[in-house]
Amino acid sequence: MSSSDDSNGYRLCVRSHEHVVTVDGCEVPLTPREYAIIRTLYSRPGWVFSALQLAGDADDSDYAPESVSVLVSRLRGKLARAGAPDAIDTVRGFGYRLKASACEGEASGEETPAESDNPLRDASWQLQEAVLAVEHAGTEEDRQAAVDALEAARRAIEAELED
């Protein structure tokens, strides 16, 4: 996976086949949990992931959502020391996201963010996005469009659960 943030002058790359993250070509040493977080955030640039979602992507069954903030803090520190100080945003009350502007795919032969192979998770993310859209809808048209998206996401989850 590859991403760049032209406005801040760094290049962030996540190579899933190697379990490697680099900033401007220099490898950033990460723990498996830190890597799991950056990999998940990179899978959907700009999307907000809750601590529960990020904890759920870890392999360890004892990985508590409460520890995500500590891991994200350590990850931010490592990325900052490597030259990418602002790659991860906190969305107060909701979770974390990798800046979408930092994740513009390039034709470099590396992987680009892929669609998830988990349709139920995709549908639940769509549901989360729809809920946020309803909460932030300004006009009645915006609200109706958000409600329609919410209903579509609900139907997608229901269909996945029936399969």
Low-confidence stretches: 1-7, 104-115
CATH class of the largest domain: Mainly Alpha
Name given to the CATH architecture of the largest domain: Orthogonal Bundle
Q: Report the span from N to C terminus.
A: 31 Å
Averaged pLDDT, please? 76
Number of domains: 2
Please give the order of strands in the largest beta sheet. 1-2-3-4
Q: What structural class do you assign from the helix and strand content?
A: alpha+beta
Share of helix, binned: 40-55%
Largest sheet: 4 strands, antiparallel
Strand content: 5-15%
Shape: globular
Question: Which fold name fills CATH's third level, the topology of the largest domain?
Answer: Arc Repressor Mutant, subunit A
Number of strands: 6
Radius of gyration: 17 Å
SSE order, one letter for each helix or strand: EEEEHHHEEHH
**Oligomeric category:** single chain
With helices defined by DSSP (H or I, 4 residues minimum), what is the helix count?
5
CATH superfamily of the largest domain: Winged helix-like DNA-binding domain superfamily/Winged helix DNA-binding domain
Describe the structure.
The protein is of the alpha+beta class and 163 residues long. Helix content is 45%, strand content 15%. It is built from 5 helices and 6 strands. The protein has helices at residues 32-43, 51-56, 68-82, 119-135, 140-162; strands at 2-5, 10-15, 20-23, 26-27, 88-91, 95-98. The strands form 2 sheets. A 4-stranded antiparallel β-sheet has the order 1-2-3-4, with helices on one face. The protein has a two-stranded antiparallel ribbon with strand order 5-6. Helix 1 crosses helix 3 (68-82) and helix 4 packs antiparallel against helix 5 (140-162). The model is unreliable at 1-7 and 104-115 (pLDDT under 50).
